[in-house]
Fold this sequence. Notes:
The protein is an alpha/beta fold. The protein has helices at 5-12, 16-23, 31-43, 50-57, 77-93, 112-118, 134-142, 169-182, 199-213, 230-239, 255-267, 301-317, and strands at 62-67, 97-102, 124-127, 147-150, 164-167, 188-193, 223-226, 249-252, 277-282, 295-298, 326-329, 332-334. It has three domains: 5-57, lambda repressor-like DNA-binding domains (434 Repressor (Amino-terminal Domain), Orthogonal Bundle); 62-168 and 302-330, Response regulator (Rossmann fold, 3-Layer(aba) Sandwich), CATH 3.40.50; 169-299, 3-Layer(aba) Sandwich (Rossmann fold). Strands 2-1-3-4-5-11 form a six-stranded parallel sheet, sandwiched between helices. It has a six-stranded mixed sheet with strand order 7-6-8-9-10-12, sandwiched between helices. Helix 1 crosses helix 2 (16-23), helix 5 (77-93) crosses helix 12 and helix 8 (169-182) packs parallel to helix 9.
Amino acid sequence: xxxxTKDIAKIANVSQSTVSRCLNNSSMISDKTKQRVLKIAxxxxxxxxxxxxxxxxxKTHTIGIVCLKRMFDDAHNIHYIDWQDSLxxxxxxxxxxxxxxxxINKFTGQNNIRKLISAKKVDGLIIMQQELDAxxxxxxxxxxxxxxxxxxxxxxxxxxxxxxxxxxxxxxGYLATQHLIGLGHQRIMCISAKVSGGEFEQxxxxxxxxxxxxxxxxxxxxxxxGDGTFHSGYQLIQDHKDQLKGITAIFGQNDLMALGALSAxxxxxxxxxxxxxxxxxxxxxxxxxxxxxxxxxxxxxDEVALLTCKRLVxxxxxxxxxxxxxxxxxxxxxxxxSCGA
Length: 341
């Protein structure tokens, strides 16, 4: 038997309108009454009608996440899936439904930010895009829907005042390089990637700054560029064997490329960390799947996701204009076997 708000009202000995207000989290009802009514509803398996709630409150209780296409790419998604899952988990904990969308519908070419907003499908948007076109930015700015950027700040936003939560990538590059220098390494090869979003550029700046702070030159240390995949890390080492002479450490600026490089070194009978120390970046689960376990810079995606979701909910619940916030979460070096100490 399906329970209704009328049934709940009878059990709780309150009016049906009071039940409705409790289910809609109305400020007109005391917390004590809300908790009692919600407990009864939950115990009897009551399912709230989302369409009815939307009509009465003009809220969908749904958040849209506009994510990267590469989140669904097998060569990259090992890292990105953790970010997506953490965002979904935090939103569901806050009792929001989630719509996952790419920026552009690959079949119709339609802008999904425009679609989600114009169709009134969401109360807020989390944007995880390395780059954003001017049209999409204009749609966001002209809409009353709150939005926040997570992980990346697109170029079009550099001169705009927007809400943004991210990891300090410069600090991550600095931590990895400083640790290797502290172990006595000066000839440190860097394996990076030329992809949009600015993260790898910031890691390289951290790498270079660490050398400068230790009165060392990085000029003789090769910086190689792949595409962020395991295969590119492997191929970079294979294609640049001659540049390994004198190198005592490698900083792979993501774990997939670092693991690919480690595989190539193993084929060359170069031991890690005995011959060449290795540090990766991202701290993905694969770091402890193979020996030696990979030392890596941990990106605290759970903390970023929590701050992103909390901030977006603040924006959605605020009736006044808010001062925009840019929050940088600090990374942490996770030391394992591959760097020797």
